[in-house]
């Protein structure tokens, strides 16, 4: 460029500043959450993002969720108030986030904007699409060694391996948030990514400041979308949390991903699917919901072969009316590598975390416990199961001590095992410590 005359140099600079042509469409109709967009065919496709001009505001973003002929159906990331027929629409590409180490200790929304009032957020050099695919099954690394979750009830009765995915099944108000805070503080991981999907707005600061605390927040990234936001934003909160976890996994970090909750993610998908005209199927959930669940959950786990990082996933599932066989819970249970059940009656009895260890299961336990640990676990389960079966008879006086040695042992040792499972939020544990405490409670030695 230096050997060109000045006029030609200026002309070349002006040409380089010219932006490419941008296709402009328009809103053809609005019904409920669905927006009909014409004029952008074939520039946009399913999953693409568009910008719409709205009266009184600059723009809103929407995602294309369906196509009918040359008309695209989009769902907005905000209210449709002020959106009129004929409003201009532009193609905005796919939604992505650009996480980096500076995100640790921060609270962000699904687009990567800070929510904690601590100023601007640095962006990474690589943008990650919210929608991504899981590593190829044939080239994916195997699960790693067992990991200390820091909660004795889980470490002993639902022992977890690095890269495993567990579901936390519970009704509302049983202590899921407190359990997640314990895991974020005490679990053996490099980074904790916490996705709050459809969270109550007033509870965000309480969770971050009281439950999570400075120690837990320092190594965490919190991605939040509150319950009053559009279903598209709530859905993207789960996808963004997964994308952030994948960033740290690809950097070789041991990531603990906690998502609260998969049920609200499914509800957001239901609203989007019904707005796009899908027929309601199982209890009002359209078929696309049950196709999206494995696409999200399968992204957690070990990385590709040769990648040192992993994503250990803990996904909460809200069970309506304590119905653990409702469609979302049943589908998630079949996808994950184990489930942990929180029981309201246990919490009402004063034992927290309120984990029902007899109904909880980790499918990887046989491969991560020593023979003596398996014996301790089997004996503890037998004692608790027998005590549960005989509790009413003992309480009513229908059982007389000495009638059955096994029942006498269960009545004697079950309270000590329950004490082992009782744990304060500030108290950290380990797998080895949990089994040592169980052995001591049952009067055996390791």
Could you outline the blueprint of secondary structure elements for this entry?
Blueprint: H1 6-17, E1 24-31, E2 34-38, E3 49-54, E4 57-68, E5 71-76, E6 88-93, E7 96-97, E8 106-108, E9 128-129, E10 146-147, H2 152-157, E11 160-161, E12 165-170, H3 176-186, E13 191-199, H4 203-218, E14 220-226, H5 231-250, E15 254-260, H6 262-275, H7 287-297, E16 301-302, E17 310-318, H8 327-335, E18 338-341, H9 344-348, E19 361-362, H10 371-396, H11 405-421, H12 431-441
Helix pairs in contact: 3-4, 5-6, 6-7, 7-8, 10-11, 11-12
Structure description:
With 446 residues, this protein is an alpha/beta fold. It has helices at 6-17, 152-157, 176-186, 203-218, 231-250, 262-275, 287-297, 327-335, 344-348, 371-396, 405-421, 431-441, and strands at 24-31, 34-38, 49-54, 57-68, 71-76, 88-93, 96-97, 106-108, 128-129, 146-147, 160-161, 165-170, 191-199, 220-226, 254-260, 301-302, 310-318, 338-341, 361-362. It has three domains: 18-94, Thrombin, subunit H (Beta Barrel), CATH 2.40.10.170; 97-366, Rossmann fold; 371-442, Up-down Bundle (Substrate Binding Domain Of Dnak, Chain:A, Domain 2), CATH 1.20.1270. Helix content is 35%, strand content 22%. The strands form four sheets. Strands 8, 12, 13, 14, 15, 16, 17, 18 and 19 form a nine-stranded mixed β-sheet that branches. A six-stranded antiparallel barrel has the order 1-2-5-4-3-6. The protein has a two-stranded antiparallel ribbon with strand order 7-9.
């Amino acid at each position: 460029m230096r050997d060109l005359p000045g006029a030609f140099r200026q002309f070349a600079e002006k040409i380089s500043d010219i932006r490419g042509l941008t296709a402009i469409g328009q809103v053809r109709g609005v019904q409920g959450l669905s927006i009909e967009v014409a004029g952008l065919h074939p520039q946009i496709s399913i999953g693409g993002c568009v910008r719409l001009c709205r009266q009184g505001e600059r723009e809103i973003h929407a995602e294309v969720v369906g196509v009918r002929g040359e008309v695209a159906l989009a769902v907005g990331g905000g209210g449709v108030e002020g959106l009129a027929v004929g409003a201009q629409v532009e193609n905005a590409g796919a939604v992505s986030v650009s996480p980096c180490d500076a995100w640790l200790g921060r609270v962000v929304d699904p687009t990567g904007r800070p929510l904690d009032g601590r100023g601007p957020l640095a962006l990474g050099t690589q943008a990650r699409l919210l929608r991504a695919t899981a590593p190829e099954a044939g080239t994916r690394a195997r699960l790693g060694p067992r990991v200390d979750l820091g909660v004795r009830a889980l470490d002993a009765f639902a022992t977890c391996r690095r890269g495993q995915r567990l579901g936390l099944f519970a009704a509302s108000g049983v202590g899921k948030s407190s359990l997640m805070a314990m895991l974020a503080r005490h679990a053996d991981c490099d980074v904790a990514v916490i996705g709050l999907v459809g969270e109550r707005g007033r509870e965000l600061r309480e969770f971050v400041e009281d439950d999570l605390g400075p120690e837990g927040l320092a190594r965490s990234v919190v991605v939040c979308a509150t319950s009053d936001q559009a279903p598209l934003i709530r859905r993207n909160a789960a996808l963004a949390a997964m994308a952030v976890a994948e960033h740290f996994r690809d950097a070789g970090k041991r990531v603990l991903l906690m998502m609260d909750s998969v049920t609200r993610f499914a509800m957001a998908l239901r609203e989007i699917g019904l707005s796009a005209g899908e027929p309601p199927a199982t209890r009002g959930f359209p078929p696309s919901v049950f196709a999206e669940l494995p696409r999200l959950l399968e992204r957690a786990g070990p990385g590709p072969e040769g990648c040192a990082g992993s994503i250990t996933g803990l996904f909460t599932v809200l069970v309506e009316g304590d119905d653990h066989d409702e469609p979302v819970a049943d589908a998630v249970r079949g996808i994950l590598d184990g489930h942990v059940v929180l029981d309201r009656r246990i919490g009402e009895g004063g034992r927290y975390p309120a984990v029902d260890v007899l109904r909880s299961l980790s499918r990887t336990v046989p491969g991560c416990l020593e023979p003596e640990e398996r014996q301790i676990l089997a004996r503890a389960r037998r004692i608790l199961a027998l005590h549960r079966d005989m509790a009413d008879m003992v309480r009513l006086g229908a059982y007389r001590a000495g009638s059955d040695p096994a029942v006498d042992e269960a009545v004697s040792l079950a309270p000590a095992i329950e004490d082992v499972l009782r744990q304060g939020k500030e108290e950290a544990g380990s797998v080895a410590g949990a089994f040592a405490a169980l052995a001591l409670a049952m009067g055996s030695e390791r």
